[in-house]
Specification:
By secondary structure, this protein is mainly alpha-helical. The chain contains four helices and no strands.
Length: 101
């Protein structure tokens, strides 16, 4: 069995259990990332703030990838994973508010 077939087998239970909350979770992350990146590149902020906010976006991207990998390999733990994601989302928002005022 090649890698592609393994991925298809692993993805089948995920496809079968996709809910509106899952689509909203993905959509929200895409909106946050695109909006934040747009704000970062088109706003007039100091280089220090740009660097700090850029680091926070790297944090957001890394933990989002981790969350989706965890969801992919453990779709049965979706509620727990979303709870963990909520904690990191609140931390992300707090860091942004602290850095940008």
């Amino acid at each position: 069995m090649n890698f592609r077939e393994k991925i298809k087998i692993q993805a089948k239970p995920i496809k079968d259990n996709i809910e509106i909350a899952d689509i909203a979770f993905v959509s929200l992350r895409i909106i946050i990332f695109c909006g934040g990146a747009g704000w970062l590149f088109f706003s007039d902020i100091s280089p220090r703030t740009f660097s700090l906010v850029g680091s926070i976006f790297v944090y957001f991207t890394v933990y989002s990838v981790f969350i989706y990998c965890w969801l992919f390999f453990s779709p049965g733990k979706k509620r727990k994973i979303y709870g963990v994601a909520l904690f990191f989302d609140l931390l992300y928002a707090s860091l942004l508010v602290k850095v940008t005022g």
